[in-house]
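QA checklist item 7 of 12: single-chain prediction sanity check.
[x] sequence parsed
[x] length recorded as 214
[x] structure emitted
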Amino acid sequence: MFVNVSDPIGQGFVKSLAQPGGNLTRVLHYEPSIVGKWLAMIKEVAPGTSRVCMFGNPETTPFNYFLRAAQDTARSLALEVVSGQTSNTDTDVERVLSSFAATPHGGLVVLPDSTTVSHRDLIVALAAKRRLPAVYPFDFFVAAGGLMSYGTDQDDMFRVTAYYVDRILRGDKPADLPVQAPTKFETTVNIKTAKALGLTVPAGLLVAADEVIE
């Protein structure tokens, strides 16, 4: 079973989602369609946003998988997508974000990535300093002061994984178990951060949020 994988075909784990064809299967961490939700959330909270940086490390996340999805969706939201590729250093994280923020009307999508997770405090601090409305893949970014997050319900994902493990132990072959898409998601919003950025979170987004930090 693979864990925290969003692009199992591109990363060579399976031949197809419907028929993995090997010894691995799992629940997807993130489908590419989630990128449309991230972009829409930024436009909803900050309607004046015209540019969005897709931020992550190509060495530790399937960067192009998410970038292509953003490019496919951005036009309908009147957004320009900017590739924000970083390495796993504080210096590079600050360089990429500061360079992007030098042009106004920007927003930030932080990708699910071990690099962004390990640098989360710096990323959140830079987003605040550079006044970038940002959406994150995990709620702990928001707990650290980030604006908002939308991501897969981790508990549910591991419950489904346990179910698959049970089936395999009972004799099912991984090659015959389709890779499942996540079905449960969580939204977290930080009102204090929104106020600091001069933003008003729409009532609809607050109602839909699973957690609101004030």
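[x] summary fact logged: The domain at 1-30+153-183 is CATH 3.40.50.2300 (Rossmann fold).
[ ] second reviewer sign-off
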